[in-house]
Specification:
heterodimer, A: 231 residues, Rossmann fold, four-stranded mixed beta sheet, four-stranded parallel beta sheet, elongated, B: alpha/beta, 43% helix, 14% strand, globular
Amino acid sequence: MIITQLKDIDQIYNLIKPYDKILITGCDGCCQPPRSLNEAKVLGQLLELKSRTEGKELKWKAITVLRQCDDRIAATTCRPYIEEFDAILTLACGLGVVMMNKVLPEILTFPAQNSMFGGVQNTGENNFIEYCETCGDCIIGETGGVCPRAGCAKHLSNGPCGGMVEGMCEVGGYTIPCAWVQIWARLKEFNRLDLFKKYRGPRDYRTSTSPGYMTIYKDYTNIKEEKEEKK
Amino acid sequence: MTNRPAFSNLMKAVQEGHFVFTGELEPKKILNLDEIIHSAKEMKKTGRIVAANVTDGPQGDAYMSSMVPSYLVQEKANIEAVWQVTVRDRNRVALFGDVIAGAVLGLKNILTLTGDHTALGDHKKGRAVYDIDSTQFAEMLSMMIDDGVDYEGNEIEGGKIEMNFGCVANPNSDPREPEILKVGRKVEQGVDFIQTQTAFDIDQAKDFLKELEQFNIPVLLGIFPLKSHGIAWYFDNFIPGVSVPKDLLKALKTAEKENKGNKQGKYAAIDKINIEFFKPFIEEIKKSTKAAGIHCMAVEYERLFAPLLGDFPEYVK
């Protein structure tokens, strides 16, 4: 899931201040915590109140989109409305904002949220934790299913750094578990400390250089065929 | 242990079998290095401290870069520097560039460190780099020293750099096993020596040194003499995993209270507490472990050197 956080209401208001009629779009995709129709309506009401304090009447409508990062779904859902509005405010993650601007080029779409990280909700808890940083070089097969790149504040390939207390990380005041202690405990449980002892060389950051770009070829892989290479 | 020659006085002294001492200097947010140089000169005078560590932004704070103070300490105080370099602020390109620049300046020891996260320092909004980790930095240094190449294997014009380098181990790590396994990886990458984080508990320190024996590499156990109750309290509360013995904290507090307004009396009382605690501590480490020496982090506490180290054999010329 893409974990998102609502921007400060003043910040959102400043983004849409120049417009009188806005379409607010929720997203039913993987954005967490949920930002669907209800959240879009609540945001509309808040912005309407805020506008009134500044002596302005804001017209708005809330809808929701199945998945804003899907070009066809985003376009077909929103296109019927855009003529009535000056701008779109979206509750999707950054991918949704970009896609809406792409498929509806005649209108500007603004983000109401900050995209935080790729993560999941901790079962039974009120928090989300980053589990994957989409590095392009997955090593969790060697680390007991725990990612040291997303999970370690220092992104160490050969951890732990030594600053853990009772298995908790010094960064963030010992509230988050040390990923390398988790890796060690998990590999020890399966008698696979050989994997823990293994030295891992420097990362090849070309796999995660921005902007990420990948082509899919005929055989549904992203590995370039030799003939195409020759061209 | 690596077969690398001893390029530094520190490694030479260790190989000659001396029980060595290293000191610590902390260049902070300051333009004037007179105090650092003075402290380094005092270390030299002891005849027991063979080299001085120069810290690189401890606790993630923005301090003076460690390279120039390391050089000046060697030039002006005539004591070898252990140049601390963290991987927190520089990527592999900058680390390589700094290391060959340091080699040109005549620096002979590097201590490789991960570095305290920027989130703990005074520029919390900053981006921490960590392009390579300290184990990978060790591999890079081995390539520069043993093969005369950069991290991609490109030759360094002029050949191999002549340096020894160490890594850090933390006796306070909890749990300890992953820490020991990590040290194993670093030793595989060719580190010459280990300096440890500070230890206050003699049994814990001895256990830790015993576990490090398997790597057959010189270890300098870290101690941190406590210059004031405030420093002790800070250490106890803010340094990960370190707890200062309660008796020591109490004694320091009492000493400061009883000598309020009497600076000399306070100093004497505090020094006495430190000597009574650390002297037997060092003697015990020297007698009953295979430690190569002590890394004495008496930062800005030069007056303790003579009484604390005076009874140990002199070996630094």
